[in-house]
């Protein structure tokens, strides 16, 4: 597996400048930027099917928007459990500290509960970071919203390719850091376009992983 | 690519300039690809070392915070306490004290992370031995992981509902058991996975 090509393959597309520039502009506009997520999903699917080039065209913006929106909704549902738990914890803190007259006791309760809350959030975020990319790949390949929540299949994919999966995650983080650094040098605004490049790198990494995955898991 | 190659070998000045740009881009691309492939191979071969270093980097500041507080470096120690607040409740009555100041993690968290890290070191030692290279340990089954983590949950739950007040020794013991169980599951699983990754990312001949 030539993981290094993920960083350069997009430059072989004849229209790579145009496609990355459009992606950067789309990323800039709130709500419309769901279409950029849709573009990412199409790039994952194309790579997994062995068609990494040419890069997806910026046509059918509505279709891309819907795909991105679905991924956004799934992300929201993924984050919902921890949001509810945090809401309950902070609600309880507000009620209990309101009922306690001693300020020191109230402060102790508030500190302890928020500590437990942040602790849970930390663990949940790590789990989310591990699981969500695999779920997104699964959605990209099947096009079904339910694919985000077939945890058995998602876990089977991660477990069967755990080494490559972690390496892909780390390399994607490296690409993100490079994009932020280079984009930051380019007067800040460059980040929009370099992040589009990092998005394509990530799409290629996970698309290739899905293509190379054992047939039993994909 | 085809069009670019065809142009690259023409002999007009524009074509020669094109050829220069094309070759330069090719060289840069090849170097970037080689660098990224090298990074992937490095992670695949040295994952245990990297994990152990990362765990050590996570645990060390929890010892450093009380030390810094004890020598009067309040500002850096406060920064460490603040960062670790996102991973632990840091209640003083449930924490160990070093140099007269509490550690940045509670007794239970300290035991979980330390035993996980310690198991990583032991795993590295095992894999360095001749018999360890031949026999890769199998991951601990999930049900056994649950058994090893159960005392920690029971201890925490009993304390939460007011059945008993645990001690730091109990918190540390049950936490260490859960951390060791997690290590027995995680390290062999990762070992298998990265062995596969080493084959996948091996340079093509």
Q: CA-to-CA gap between the ends of chain A?
A: 17 Å
Strand content of chain A: under 5%
Task: Note the beta-strand portion of chain B.
Answer: under 5%
* Number of DSSP helical runs of chain B: 8
Summed over residues and divided by their number, the pLDDT of chain A gives a mean of 85
Q: In terms of per-residue confidence, which ranges of chain B show pLDDT below 50 for 5 or more consecutive residues?
A: none
Rounded average pLDDT of chain B? 86
Radius of gyration of chain A: 20 Å
Rg of Cα set of chain B: 26 Å
What structural class do you assign from the helix and strand content of chain B?
Answer: mainly alpha
Instruction: Characterize the main sheet of chain A.
Output: none
Helix count from the secondary structure assignment of chain A: 7
- The main sheet of chain B orders its strands as 1-2
Shape of chain B: extended
Which oligomerization state do the chains in this entry correspond to?
A: heterodimer
What level of helicity do the residues of chain A show?
over 70%
> Rough shape of chain A?
elongated
Helical percentage of chain B: over 70%
SSE blueprint:
The complex is a heterodimer of chains A (218) and B (205).
Chain A lengths: L15 H13 L5 H15 L12 H39 L3 H40 L8 H10 L1 H24 L4 H23 L6
Helix pairs in contact in A: 1-2, 1-7, 2-3, 2-4, 2-7, 3-4, 4-5, 6-7
Chain B lengths: L1 H7 L4 H33 L1 H24 L3 H11 L12 E2 L2 E2 L4 H22 L1 H5 L7 H19 L7 H33 L5
Antiparallel strand pairs in B: 1-2
Helix pairs in contact in B: 1-2, 3-4, 3-5, 5-8, 7-8
Q: Would you mind describing this structure in some detail?
A:
The complex is a heterodimer of chains A (218) and B (205). By secondary structure, chain A is mainly alpha-helical. Chain A contains seven helices and no strands. By secondary structure, chain B is mostly helical. Helices cover 75% and strands 2% of the residues of chain B. Chain B has eight helices and two strands. Chain B has a two-stranded antiparallel sheet with strand order 1-2. In chain B, helix 1 crosses helix 2, helix 3 crosses helix 4 and helix 3 runs antiparallel to helix 5. The model of chain B has no long low-confidence stretch (mean pLDDT 86). The chains are: A mainly alpha (218), B mainly alpha (205). At the A-B interface, helix 4 and helix 6 of A face helix 2 and helix 8 of B.
């Amino acid at each position: 597996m030539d993981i290094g090509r993920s960083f350069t393959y997009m430059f072989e597309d004849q229209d790579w400048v145009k496609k990355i520039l459009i992606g950067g502009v789309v990323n800039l506009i709130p709500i419309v930027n769901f279409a950029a997520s849709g573009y990412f999903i199409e790039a994952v699917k194309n790579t997994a099917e062995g068609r990494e080039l040419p890069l997806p065209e910026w046509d059918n913006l509505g279709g891309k928007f819907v795909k991105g929106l679905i991924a956004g909704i799934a992300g929201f549902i993924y984050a919902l459990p921890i949001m509810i738990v945090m809401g309950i914890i902070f609600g309880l803190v507000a009620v209990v500290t309101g009922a306690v007259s001693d300020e020191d006791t109230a402060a102790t309760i508030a500190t302890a509960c928020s500590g437990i809350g942040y602790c849970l959030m930390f663990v949940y975020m790590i789990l989310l970071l591990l699981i969500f990319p695999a779920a997104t790949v699964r959605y990209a390949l099947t096009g079904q919203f339910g694919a985000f929540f077939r945890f058995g299949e998602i876990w089977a994919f991660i477990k069967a390719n755990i080494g490559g999966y972690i390496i892909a995650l780390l390399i994607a983080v490296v690409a993100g850091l490079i994009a932020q650094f280079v984009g930051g040098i380019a007067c800040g605004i460059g980040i929009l376009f370099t992040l589009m490049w990092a998005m394509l790198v990530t799409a290629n990494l996970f698309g290739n992983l899905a293509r190379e995955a054992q047939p039993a898991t994909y | 690519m085809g069009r670019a190659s065809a142009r690259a070998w023409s002999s007009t000045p524009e074509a020669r300039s094109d050829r220069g740009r094309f070759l330069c881009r090719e060289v840069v691309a090849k170097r970037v690809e080689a660098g990224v492939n090298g990074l992937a191979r490095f992670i695949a071969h040295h994952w245990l070392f990297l994990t152990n270093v990362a765990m050590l980097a996570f645990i060390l500041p929890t010892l450093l915070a009380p030390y810094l507080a004890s020598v009067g470096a309040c500002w850096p120690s406060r920064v460490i306490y603040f960062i670790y607040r996102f991973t632990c409740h840091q209640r003083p009555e449930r924490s160990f004290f070093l140099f007269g100041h509490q550690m940045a993690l509670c007794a239970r968290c300290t035991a979980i992370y330390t035993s996980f890290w310690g198991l990583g070191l032991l795993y590295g030692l095992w894999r360095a031995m001749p018999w360890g290279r031949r026999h890769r340990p199998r991951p601990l089954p999930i049900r056994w992981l649950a058994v090893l983590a159960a005392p920690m949950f029971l201890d925490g739950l009993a304390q939460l509902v007011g059945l008993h007040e645990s001690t730091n020794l109990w918190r540390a013991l049950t936490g260490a058991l859960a951390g060791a169980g997690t290590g027995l599951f995680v390290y062999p699983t990762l070992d298998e996975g990265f062995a596969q990754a080493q084959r996948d990312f091996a340079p093509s001949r």
